[in-house]
Amino acid sequence: MFHLRTCAAKLRPLTASQTVKTFSQNRPAAARTLGQIRCFTAPVAAEPFLSGTSSNYVEEMYYAWLENPKSVHKSWDIFFRNTNAGALPGTAYQSPLPLSPGSLSAVAQAQPLVDAQPNVDKLVEDHLAVQSLIRAYQIRGHHVAQLDPLGILDADLDSSVPADIISSTDKLDLAVFKERLRMLTVGGFYGLDESDLDKVFHLPTTTFIGGQESALPLREIIRRLEMAYCRHIGVEFMFINDLEQCQWIRQKFETPGVMQFTSEEKRTLLARLVRSTRFEDFLQRKWSSEKRFGLEGCEVLIPALKTIIDKSSENGVDYVIMGMPHRGRLNVLANVIRKELEQIFCQFDSKLEAADEGSGDVKYHLGMYHRRINRVTDRNITLSLVANPSHLEAADPVVMGKTKAEQFYCGDTEGKKVMSILLHGDAAFAGQGIVYETFHLSDLPSYTTHGTVHVVVNNQIGFTTDPRMARSSPYPTDVARVVNAPIFHVNSDDPEAVMYVCKVAAEWRSTFHKDVVVDLVCYRRNGHNEMDEPMFTQPLMYKQIRKQKPVLQKYAELLVSQGVVNQPEYEEEISKYDKICEEAFTRSKDEKILHIKHWLDSPWPGFFTLDGQPRSMTCPSTGLTEDILAHIGNVASSVPVENFTIHGGEDATDLWRCWATSVDFSPAWGRPRGGGQGLSRILKTRGELVKNRTVDWALAEYMAFGSLLKEGIHIRLSGQDVERGTFSHRHHVLHDQNVDKKTCIPMNHLWPNQAPYTVCNSSLSEYGVLGFELGFAMASPNALVLWEAQFGDFHNTAQCIIDQFICPGQAKWVRQNGIVLLLPHGMEGMGPEHSSARPERFLQMCNDDPDVLPNLEEANFDINQLYDCNWVVVNCSTPGNFFHVLRRQILLPFRKPLIIFTPKSLLRHPEARTSFDEMLSGTHFQRVIPEDGLAAQNPENVKRLLFCTGKVYYDLTRERKARGMAEQVAITRIEQLSPFPFDLLLREVQKYPNAELGWCQEEHKNQGYYDYVKPRLRTTINRAKPVWYAGRDPAAAPATGNKKTHLTELQRLLDTAFDLDAFKNFS
Ligand SMILES: Cc1ncc(C[n+]2csc(CCOP(=O)(O)OP(=O)(O)O)c2C)c(N)n1
Ligand SMILES: [Mg+2]
User: Fold this and answer.
1) pLDDT computed for residue 34 by the predictor
2) Most CB contacts within 10 A, which of 509, 559, 915, 932?
3) How confident is the model at residue 22 (pLDDT cuts 50, 70, 90)?
4) Ligand number with the minimum distance to the CA of 295
5) Could you check whether the bond before residue 832 is cis, i.e. omega within 30 degrees of 0?
6) pTM for the complete prediction?
């Protein structure tokens, strides 16, 4: 279609570019058929018709003629032929002969001024060829761009030049050009030849290489395309499915002269390069044998980041949250975030003692938070670098989540004030799946941060591994294509090109609010760290690197040659910064104590005392007044908006009741088999519960959330299908059955001035989403952020977030976090998958000592224990306790991650209900629920005290009842597994002096809680008695896939639990 536009433009008295613009704006691009065209056999009028309103008519005529010259009147045919053959204005038109007998033949005899048809074809073909050529550069120019500063590698892992590009490494060397042209001609691509080089071609609207010109000689077209796409910047963007965005990028890179820098800008760039380079030099001089993962070979990263920040600040951003790996991290802290140099230098002093809690972390993992004035824009800017583990890319979703939270809490709904920058290594960006998972969050309504600028330090190596062994995609950045992010590859030895792409990246983000990637193609001057010998594995590359002039030197020489700076000025800049480093180094020797809290990435002003301590060591009652409970219950069981039709299918088989009374549960999630469970019926049942002053699991959760919202606590519940609930019990988002996408969240209609409730179904990524929510929870202590796994076992695809952040986060980075993990767990005959949330793993990572009985007399023992622990692990057996523990999470004066093993069948179990009485003001979370039946009335008679946790309690009580052993066997539930409630359990044990002790669990012996509970129970009783085990045998899989085996195993563990002789032979 394009060739039509070009030629049509040529015909019109407007400038070609105006014409084409007008045309392309007004005209759909779809191919036209002759049938759609008006009558074209009218003879051509005089040439002034080319102006004014008739030009459209002429244009249409022209298209028709192009498609079939015979479809228009002969006079038009002649006219178009003459015009295309280059006839001068006024000469193309030949008036038709009078319409008299024989006139038709006369017209037929009329000859064009030139025999134009072959030329027209050639012209069209040539324009087509030029158009294709332009497009080829736009699509594939980056493959031949000179991206590798070493000049020996191919950033796309391919040394060949794409077959439809004329470019060669020698650029427009005529001989090479001819050869390429010949190849292309033979290959049938363009049909252009050397003689076409000086012909003028009209430019399509999809290029900006013309600047003010609408036509250029082919030679110049190629030269400009080479300049735009094949020098030190390789732009990948033609996969973007948005014309406006593509045009925006084309304009940024094709417009002639667009990459101009003022002397001032060049000097600033040089000064920043001086800082970046000399910082590493300084560290190398002072601590030559210390690991620091220096930036040498990519010093340009510092000015690059500063440019992105300057430009973003200019566009209104005042908070930038960054995540980055090891490479150059200290340099970024010093020269981008501006951490005091002495604070960095003293980290190299091995004699410093830690002043704060925790083990701390090595210097290149710690985070940072700093607010300052941006000198370029004179605006306030806050910079935060999120602390990260060694696990590459794991911080990506955490940074996203924190960014989202900061945006949310300052009402920045479009990401205009808060943004994130993520840095990556080339090998990690290509290799780590979390990169892909994080990209997939970038455009989801409840997860978008409205665009992230990604910067890849692409040193073309990962540790000792060459890119060819590390990835199968051409570039390490190809993963970004999935979200249509433009990718700007740039040779980092051309600092101005780097600054330019960084500016464009920041502008892209502020214009389109979408992700963008800057790929800094660079090298690594040293080994992976400063102790490493790179010549073992990359001898040739490193021979080249040894010869490579540092970029600072190259750029300084360039600026001196341009007269932008002189040599003394340059040297003075260097000595000025060296002096700053020396002075800071001297000051750093005065530091005697290491304060990890100086490296906090997310301070919570006002939450702690000025010393960073909790404001109290108590927790108020987590109960509520009757009114509040009733109000929340009523909203939870109604539709709080008008004209909203909820799902109300009749419950023909009344499976609700069937489920509720069942003990041997069928699949406990989703829609009950064989019948519909109307939402209206679910709400009605909720209403009945409220009337009876009781709650089930879903209502308990509602009560906890609803009451916290009233207290101004934002709640965010995220995970797969959490809105309805995997088990169809929650229904926090109602869907109008008649109006598509009309929804209602009753939780947001509870109170005037309540805090907002966010409930969001997530993408199917545990790693990404859990990391995101962890980041979200970092931003504020006044939010309850919960992540729910679809089934508890799926948390292991997010293991890295759990192991590296949630479990040790406070110890490593003095950063508290109150995230809640809801992990559906329980052996319900569903097979090895979907059964176990792996409690043993969480318990094994608790930091309390199994062999040491803490001081139980200590005031506020329970709260102190919570304060000292790394996380809290609970398995609630009642909805009421679930309610309390959720509320406690916020009412505590500090924050700890909370792991909750949540039930499946208990969601609907008739006994798993709690009366309002147990949730009223004055009530608390029960860490232990003691036996309160017959056994408790005559404890001396009790033969066995069984401890358990979670759902198995209901199996045990049912069995005890069936066996009539209520007086002989006491059953006590441990609801808070960690920190271990030594105090309460001691009381329980002492209460039953004649009872033997047993632990009963439904999980296999090598799984579940046994290994955690047993030594702690033994410590509690000073090892006075054994703790017997009643449960499944050890196994490799979490559960059997055979239902019968499952039931047999269950019965066997119940038999053991109630056989009072079971352990006789062992004692
Ligand atoms: C998840 C993970 N796997 C492995 C490692 C070990 N490791 C540390 S650095 C590194 C190479 C990283 O290469 P690249 O991403 O290119 O960064 P560079 O060091 O080149 O800057 C590896 C494999 C790690 N830190 N994290
Ligand atoms: Mg690398």
Assistant:
1) 30
2) 509
3) very low
4) 1
5) no
6) 0.88
